[in-house]
Structure formats: C-alpha cells, structure tokens
Design a protein that fits this description.
It contains 12 helices and no strands. It has 313 residues and is mostly helical.
Amino acid sequence: MQDAGRKDYNAGILYAFMAYLLWGVLPLYWKLLDTISAVEILAHRIVWSFVFVLVIIFLSKKAMKLKNEVTHLLKNRKILLGVILSSILVTGNWFIFIWAVNNNHIIETSLGYYINPLVSVLLGVLVLKERVSFWQTISFSLAGVGVLILTLQYGSFPWVSLTLAVTFGLYGLAKKLTNLDSLIGLMLETMLITPVALIFLVSSFVNGTDTFSQTSISQQLLLMGAGVATALPLLWFAQAARRIPLTMVGIIQYVSPTISLMIGVFLYNEEFTKTHMITFIFIWSALVIYSVSKTKLMLSLQPKIGKKRSIGA
C-alpha cells in the first residue's frame, strides 16, 4: 500500500510539472492570435476544449462512466454547485489571461501566478485543514511582502495579477472538493459554458463581425488548436490536485510564472522595473525556503518509511 501511495504521489508531482510547464509557454500561443479579440478567442477556446475532451472520452471508452457521472451530478447538489463554480472560475481566468497577454501584460500574469500559491495555501489551511510548518509560513509571508511592495510602489490595485491568482486558487479548491474524474470533470465544466460560447460565435458570424470565417487557414487551425492547448494542462492539473496536497500543487506552480516572466522580459521586451526586481526577489526567496523545508520534511520521513517496510517484510 505504501509503494502504491508513493507512486501515486510521484505521479501527481509529474502531472503538476507537465501542466505548469505547458502553462508557462502558453503566452507564445496566444500571441499568435493577438489580432483577434480576447472574447472571440475565449469562445473558441471553450468550444474546441469541449470537443477535444469529448473525443478523448469516447476514444478512452469512458462514455458509460460519463453517463453515470452526469446522473450522479444531477442528484448531488454539492457536486453540481462545484462543477458550476469551476466552470465560471476557469472561464473568467481564461479571459483575463488571454486579454492580458495580448495587451502586453505578460509580466503581470506572471506575478499573478506567483501570488497564486499564497491563495492555494490559504485555502488549503482554512478549508481543507492542511498543515504548514514554521518555515513554510515564513516563506509565504516573504512572498506576501513582495506583492505588497509592488502594490504600494505602483500606487494602484494590481487587478490582473490578483484576479488571476484568486480565480485559479478557487478553481483548484473546487476541483479538490468535487473529486470527479479529471477528464469527465473538465468535459462537464466546458459543457456548461459551451452553449454561451456558441451563441456568441453564431451571432458574430451572422452579423459578419467574426474573425474565424475571414482569417487565414493557419489562424483557423490555431483557434481550433486552442482546445488542445487548454485541455491538456487542465487535465494534468486535475490529476495532480487529486494526488498531492494543495500546498504542494501551489509551490510547483512557480515553474509556470518563471517561464512566462522570461518570455515577457526577453522576447517581448516588457518593462521590468527595480520594483519588479525587489518583488520577485522576495518571492524567489520564499520559493527557496519552502522547497528546502519540504525537502527536509521528506528526508525526515524516509527512516520511518524504511522501518515500516522492513517490519512488513
């Protein structure tokens, strides 16, 4: 049982790393569509994500399980509410991210996903009763100070960063609480919002204001491919959220904003001020402290695990 638990835990960490690696490079994808409005990109992202996930479900022969999950969903108000909440949160998160990237705010999106672990940890402690050590508390406090410095220096509310952090933190919590199959959960989330997206796209086409019917084949393929680019990391994220603590999911998330930060600064030459540097130093210091504290915790558990295994043998 312990070996199975360890494999499941390691698989969760791998899923989390894959998800955040892909999320980190996603700004490059949306930049290829920056001539199209964020609302239209979002609508295509929702529709094609639904289609892609539905195809995977039938190819993986989970259609019967989907039917059972839908039946169970309709009978359980708590799970239904969780799926509806997840759908709303992820849709809002998608829109803000696309808009920010295509309006040259990649660094702000990066900061948002650096802040997100604070939200994830807070939700993990308050709602799921997860525990954090003294040094982990210090690390989150340092990250909080960094964010506060940026807010005070700029003199304005960093709404892009904080909205991204809060919506995705709550989305992770909702996924944790509903505990649905990752594939079916994502299908249900996109299914709920797909009718709204379709109404928008059809209305735009009828009025002649849509981009899809008037753009190049390459742009059309990119819009359709948004479903794959969206669904894969979400599926991996859902797998991770079911296997490892929310606090661990939160700290691995630093992979994504670090990549996005590099993209914003070095590829798109966004302004990176001294205040940004101070903020990120605080956050990176918090990451180091948290990582060391988690490593020490795992090392301290190894003798106990080894002893239990030898007794069982």
